[in-house]
Amino acid sequence: MTLNILFLTITISKRKESFDEALNQERINKLYEENKDRQISMYRM
User: Fold this and answer.
1) What parts of the chain have a pLDDT lower than 50?
2) Which InterPro entries match (predicted)?
3) Are 25 and 17 a contacting pair, CB within 8 Å?
4) 17 Cβ contact partners less than 8 Å away, ≥ 6 residues apart
């Protein structure tokens, strides 16, 4: 009788952002906050 066992190791690591990706994400967050503030100010009227 033969027993074949396959050992598999999966390593998950966080992907590092490039400078351009980080800059783009910061711009997106800024626009999101501006739009949220605009919506709040329109709701108060």
Assistant:
1) none
2) YrzI
3) yes
4) 25
What pLDDT, on a 0 to 100 scale, did the predictor assign at position 20?
A: 92
Report how far residue 45's alpha carbon sits from residue 33's, in angstroms, rounded to the nearest whole number: 19
The Cα 26–Cα 6 span in angstroms is 44
- From residue 23, give the alpha-carbon distance in Å to each of 14, 17, 20, 43, 45: 18, 10, 5, 31, 34
Distance separating alpha carbons of residues 20 and 26, to the nearest angstrom: 10
Q: Report d(CA 41, CA 9) in Å as an integer.
A: 52
As given in the structure block, the two tokens for residue 27 are 């711009």
